[in-house]
Amino acid sequence: MEAEKAPIEFYLESRSGVAPYLQLVQQVRQALRLGFLKPGDQLPTVREVVAQLAINPNTVFKAYRTLELEGLVGSRPSL
Which own/partner contact pairs does 24-29 have at CB distance under 8 Å and 24+ positions apart? Predict the structure, then answer.
């Protein structure tokens, strides 16, 4: 059985001058606004983002926490 692909893939622009966690937040906001992400879609796990971007897990946690506080995403306990 093939794992379901997340509807968003993050990227970071190191020369942008924008903090990495804010880049992730902005990408989710834009994906929601453009309809690439829909209610119920699952974001990549912190582990997946860390492996893809080679960044600190706390950066991803901070981005996801910011999105949750803004009411843009909800967390579900992993099984």
Answer: 24/49, 24/59, 24/60, 24/63, 25/63, 25/66, 25/67, 28/63, 28/67, 28/72, 28/73, 29/72
What are 77's two structure tokens? 């306990």
Counting DSSP H helices and E strands in the chain, the numbers are: 3, 0
Helix axes 46-53, 57-69, angle to 10 degrees: 130
Q: In which residue ranges of the chain is pLDDT below 50?
A: 1-2
Read off the pLDDT of residues 24-40 as tens digits, 9 standing for 90 and up: 999 999 999 999 998 88
Contact 21, 66 (CB under 8 A): yes
